[in-house]
Design goal:
Order of helices and strands: EEEEEEEEEEEEEEEE
Shape: elongated
Strand order of the largest sheet: 5-14-12-7-10-9
Number of helices: 0
Helix content: under 10%
Largest sheet: 6 strands, mixed
Structural class: mainly beta
Number of strands: 16
Length: 215
């Protein structure tokens, strides 16, 4: 059974015999031997604000991630309204990371049509996702999972850039892109020298102390 909201409204949820069954649309009902009542509950549509595309987790700081380790991150979307096309470029430090795999995830029951260009030498992955039906969500949804291989100790930004979110009319969705960071090298910050400007002082004397640190 498919619910078709009027303009300005959205399906809030289904009630089957008075029990909330969520907002999947269409909704499948298996008929039994007794009467059943299915109610479509609609609500006024309020477009989400603050659309964003981001890396999850935003930071991965782990000194145990030595060379030959692997880890995965998700690219997520949130607060998008009627998203139909998503494009982004993810750059990383090739001296620290290599790409192992890219997995495209089902979003609200949809598996997108995809395009991908990956270059481990240049250190980027370009991805385009086309959805059959517009995606609207307030809460974060993972759209892509990327697995990386650690090749050396160090730091790598996971930089989202050239991001495009287009709605079902082809218009851009204003959004922010939130980058990630991978760190496997914990630097040993050290104080290596402390030099006072005077060896003795009395009340009212100005004293400067120069502290030298490294790393």
């Amino acid at each position: 059974i498919l619910a078709n909201p009027n303009t300005g409204y959205v399906l809030d949820h289904w009630e089957l015999n008075g029990v909330n069954k969520g907002s999947a649309n269409p909704y499948s009902v298996t008929m039994g031997t007794t009467d059943m009542t299915l109610l479509a509950v609609f609500a006024v549509y309020v477009p989400p604000v603050g659309a964003r595309i981001s890396i999850d987790p935003p930071e991965l700081i782990d000194p145990t991630m030595v060379p030959c380790s692997t880890f995965s991150i998700n690219v997520t979307i949130a607060a998008v309204d009627k998203l139909l096309i998503c494009r982004f470029n993810l750059s990383y430090n090739t001296e620290v990371l290599d790409t192992v795999s890219v997995k495209f995830l089902k979003v609200l029951g949809q598996t997108p049509k995809t395009k991908i260009i990956s270059d481990d030498d240049a250190g980027y992955i370009w991805i385009q996702l086309n959805y059959t039906s517009p995606i609207t969500t307030l809460t974060p949804l993972a759209i892509v999972t990327i697995e990386f291989h650690v090749t050396a100790l160090g730091i790598s930004p996971l930089d989202l850039h050239d991001t495009e979110l287009l709605d079902d009319t082809g218009q851009p969705i204003t959004h922010v892109a939130e980058d990630g960071l991978f760190v496997t090298l914990i630097r040993d910050v050290a104080v290596v020298n402390v030099v006072p400007s005077r060896q003795w002082v009395y009340k009212g004397t100005e004293l400067n102390i120069t502290v030298t640190v490294k790393n």
